[in-house]
Amino acid sequence: EGQQTTAAVAGHEHSDFRYTLNRSKLSQEQRKFYEENGFLVIRNLVVDYVESFTGPNIKAIHTMLINKPPDPGKKSSRHPLHQDLHYFPFRPAEKIVCSWTAMQKVNRQNGCLVVLPGTHKGKLLRHDYPEWQGGVNHMYHGVKDFDPNAKMVHLEMDVGDTVFFHPLLIHGSGMNRTDGFRKSISCHYASGDCYVEDVTGTSQDVIVDEVLELVMKRTGIPKGQISFGTIWKYKSRDVKGRSGWDTK
C-alpha cells in the first residue's frame, strides 16, 4: 500500500509502472523494459529523457568524466559489481537515475559496463572492498552478497549512446585490455522532491567514514562537524525546476 501511494504521488498513472513517470518521452515498450530490467540504452540521446525518471524538478548530484586507463597487468582497471545508492544519502531510490554516455565505441575489450538485469527490484546490499589479488582502487567498493550465477549483460555502445539505470541496479565494468583510455561521461540525477536521509549506523557506514576522512584531509573540517548528507547537498546542482531538499 505504501509503495502504491508513493507511486501515485510521484505521478505514476498505474502501479505497474514504479520506476518511470507518466507523460514522459519514453515509449510504453521502453518503460516496460526499464521497469523489468532497471536499465535502458538510448541511442543518440536528448537530455529531456532524464525527466522521465525524476520528474520536472531535477538536480545533478554527481558528475564524472570517466577515463578508464589501460590495465597495468594487475586487473586494477576493473570496477567491482556495485549499487550506486551505496554512495548516496538521497531517497527514495526510485527518483534517482544515472545517465552513462559513451564518448567512444565501448565494448568488452576496453571495459564496457556489465549489468545484472532486474536487481534494481531488490534492496541496498552490503558493500566493501573485494578481495582481489591485484588490488582495488580507493572507494571502489563492491557488493558482498549476490547470486554469482545471475544473468549478466555487457552493454556495448557507440559514440553518443546513453544508458539510464536505477541506483539499485548491480553493475560494474571489466578490464581495459586496450592500449588507449576508455572515455565516458556519467551523471547522476535526483528529483528535487527527494529527501536526504541520515545513513549513519547502516551498511553505508563504510563509505560514510571514507568520505568524511577525505573531507577532513582536504578541508581540515573534523568528522563530527559535518555530515555525509550535507556534503552531498553541497556537491549537488540545480538543473531544472524547483530547488530545495529536506533532511530526515
UniProtKB/TrEMBL annotation:
Its EC number is 1.14.11.18. InterPro entries: PhyH (IPR047128), Phytyl_CoA_dOase-like (IPR008775). Belongs to the PhyH family. This is phytanoyl-CoA dioxygenase. It comes from Tegillarca granosa (Malaysian cockle).
